[in-house]
Amino acid sequence: MKIPTKSEQAYEILKSSIANGTFTPGHRLVIDQLGREHGISSVPWREALRRLEAEGWVAIVPNSGAVVRRFGRGEWMRTIRLLARLEGLATALSSEHLTSHDLSHAEDLNAQMAQALADFDLQRFGRLNHEFHDVLCSRCDDEHLLGLVRSEWMRMDLIRRSVYWHAPGRAKESVAEHAALLGLIRAGARGDDLETAARRHELNTLEAVAAYDAAEAAR
Known about the structure:
Elements: H1 6-19, E1 28-29, H2 31-38, H3 42-55, E2 58-61, E3 65-68, H4 73-95, H5 100-118, H6 122-137, H7 143-159, H8 170-186, H9 191-218
Antiparallel strand pairs: 1-3, 2-3
Helix pairs in contact: 1-3, 4-7, 4-9, 5-6, 5-8, 8-9
């Protein structure tokens, strides 16, 4: 088993801390402090930060150093569009390999999402939504595609800590669309039809938010 280099260790520490919310958008990443906390010298941290900057997770600000990136509405919209394409294909490729346990688990997650809405717990709703989609893509046999999907979901999770979006009724519609997707999978729908339905599900959110923003602007 290959032992990760110090640079790879520093990269994984930073990326996981960004992903789990330990380092939030705008958080300043101080190399000396990181070095003291993890026992890794400054050079691997600099290499890791350059890599994270290239991937779009970190911004290098003149006279301030590295900070976790803040995202705007434009990044949210672009990520939704990309996820719609990637996740639609991944869901279609995964569908024929999903087990009855996978589908039952997805149905349970969707039921929990409906309950989270009833409890006005939107944070829990968001976590369950992410888990639901991960289940539907989990049996995709294209590891590169699955990696791209999960990377974009991580980006979306980070963006949602920076960007507030609102579309009344959309969360409830999303639960209904999840049930429809599961129905298509259980019925053995063709891959193309399932890909289209999964892509449309993501784009519906984008269109609902755009419609709400337009209505608000017209007031």
